[in-house]
Design goal:
Chain lengths: ~240, ~240
DNA sequence: GACTCTGTTGGTCACCTATCCAATAGGATG
DNA sequence: CATCCTATTGGATAGGTGACCAACAGAGTC
């Protein structure tokens, strides 16, 4: 498993809880929480949310029974009680995280062009964590069929959402597109190309890189070169200045 | 804890040789391979080549001391003798594999456009394994600084090679480009976007996907839409029919 | 032939996983 | 109140990883 960075940290505060010693009746003052029994759905949701958080913060391969259990203050066995196969937890956590991203990415208001601007702008400047997650999942899909399926499904949902925007724009005559789906495919490939560099230590600063998604959108949607790039940059500075949500 | 280490898989033909018993003088006829002593450079190269092979076939995380040693018919300790940190072996194997890819990808003969056609065509149809490897490395770079550096270096070399082609094409007036480097960045981002789907179980068949790299090249290099796509397809069928190298 | 250098081995260690299972205890129900 | 269901735990098991080290043996050197 490629030693992978992370020099076996071992949470200091973690469950030092006797490694094997069966907790003699002596005053185990560390025994902070006695067992808490929750409703299955609640516990399940809790586990899933925590796993999704780990996926975003540390990567999908860091979703281990132990890691989730530690964060939740329960025993690893409990996690496997809800997710008998760890692999399924990983896939489910990915889906949850990506679903959340999608809600953030697609604005519900505004005309098609404005919604596209929001999409591109958020994609470029606010979703680094998700780019890393996509990269993570795309690679892991090589070994995890469940994840591969989940990816395909989420891609479909994303394309569907973007297709709506594009079709609306075509109806308005803002976009000049032969095949909306073709544009959709191209735009997401640009997004993925952009995301490929998410783990670069020193961010690549070249304008062609930074504005790649916007540029491809212009190309794919028949917009006048520069318009989208400018609107995205404008919205970005405006947001930075005004502190608008 | 952790009862004992090493569940001694014991290669069937391998060293059944008593576990711990210091090889009593009896004739061990199973002793298939006596130890072979090779020149350091040779052994090192052998290890590296095998690691690169594993990287391509099974993924970078499958490069483990044991995996490499097993394939080479030596003991794991020997691998760590040459690569004290397994992480460095992984990075070096990646570099070796990618260097090989580059030599294959860039044709040395032909005019700039022809060389671009070869690049795109090989990229699309012959390099799936390398797309997976890039994806693999890009993700792992998140945890392995050595790999992140190696990636950056290899990207630079690739861009350099492509930039030569583009500049030559500009000089010939075949390409219409403001900034060759910009085009270069865009083309590789398209390549990476294309490669993002390398692990998809069912290959995506849409034309916009299949020809994405060619289409982006046309866009980035100011070529007439369709020309490159057609030439790539032509070269592909020609090659398939004639069985040309 | 004897000696030295070092490539190579065999084995161990410490650590990390997931999975399985018996026993325990929380909380609702009768 | 007693009873039952099951969420939860504790621990054992089996497997995999990289790192380390003393001892062995091949090959060149004197």
């Amino acid at each position: 498993m490629v030693s992978s960075g992370e020099p076996r940290a071992a949470q200091p505060g973690g469950n030092g809880a006797a490694a094997g010693v069966p907790q003699s009746a002596s005053g185990g003052s560390e025994r902070v929480s006695s067992r808490v029994r929750k409703q299955p759905e609640e516990r399940r949701a809790e586990i899933l949310t925590e796993a999704a958080r780990i996926a975003l913060e540390e990567g999908l391969e860091r979703i281990t029974l132990r890691a989730v259990a530690d964060r939740l203050g329960v025993r690893p066995g409990l996690i496997s009680h809800y997710f008998p196969a760890a692999e399924d937890l990983v896939a489910a956590a990915f889906v949850l995280a990506i679903t959340g991203e999608r809600e953030h990415l697609f604005s519900v208001s505004g005309d098609p062009l404005e919604r596209l601007v929001v999409f591109v702008q958020r994609m470029q400047f606010e979703e680094e964590g998700f780019s890393r997650l996509w990269l993570n999942a795309r690679h892991l899909a090589r070994f995890t069929p469940a994840l591969a399926d989940a990816i395909e499904e989420q891609e479909g949902l994303d394309r569907g959402r973007l297709a709506e925007v594009i079709e609306a724009g075509c109806a308005d005559g803002v976009f000049t597109v032969e095949d909306p789906f073709e544009a959709c495919v191209r735009i997401f490939m640009a997004v993925d190309g952009f995301g490929s560099y998410a783990n670069d230590p020193a961010p690549f600063e070249h304008a062609a890189y930074v504005h790649f998604v916007a540029d491809v959108c212009e190309w794919a949607l028949g917009l006048t070169p520069g318009t989208l790039r400018e609107r995205v940059a404008h919205r970005y500075t405006q947001q930075a200045d005004g502190g608008i949500l």
